[in-house]
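Homework help board

Subject: predicted structure for assignment chain

Our instructor gave us this sequence and asked us to write out the predicted structure in token form, then describe one feature. I got the tokens but I'm not sure how to describe them. Can anyone check?
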Amino acid sequence: MAKEPTVEEKLRQLYELQSIDSQITEFEILKGELPMEVRDLEDEIVGLETRNAKLESNIKDFESEISRHEANIKEAENLILKYQKQLDNVKNNREFDALTKELELQKLEIQLSEKKIKQVSQDISNKDETLKATQERLDAKQKELDTKKVELSQIIEKTEKEEEKLKKKAEKVRKKIEDRLIKAYDRIRTSYRNGLAVVTVERNSCGGCFNMIPPQEQVEIAQRKKIIACEHCGRILVDNHIMEDMTETKEAVTEAED
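My token output:
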């Protein structure tokens, strides 16, 4: 049966995990806003491409509409020629009036189609201008995205191996810590932007929120007999010598192994 770790050992494990996670966070800071900027640019580009596709579809619809009106004009012109020939062979006023009326209707049809073509042509011109502006913006965003991706790729290339090593190390330490403490640790970490869940007492203050720690509580923290959280921010508090003790312990273990 495995021996239950002491409170001091638990505190050391938590502090060690925090140290590793803080190094991983430094790599994230090094990347800065680049991953988010890349995602935002990719989303924006998808939106612009969708808008371009819609504009192109609208232009095609307008062009089809113009083709229909041109066909109407052609048909009306053919009918006008037909009715004009028929006028030469009318037998009475009734036929003449009917043909004249048809001629007028076809001429009105041509005028209406020409008006529609003019309107739709203007719509196409407007859509073309919008499409051009959107394409220019898309090209600029694509260029910006390519640059950001190169920057991010270079950073990842430099840090990936070390970051992966730290993550494996963190996972190894995590397995030593009981679930209850890990859950508390993760909950506190996600509550703060800097990801600090375990902090040392610096200048009589919490290393996380910088509020004063009462002298008696500092003594208890230094004794490492129980896990103490800051009453102001909830972070787990350890004394600022725990790192030195951890280093000494590791060196002792190494010497013993040798």
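Reply (TA_rk): Your tokens look well-formed. For the description, you could write something like this. The mean pLDDT is 89. That's the kind of observation they're looking for.
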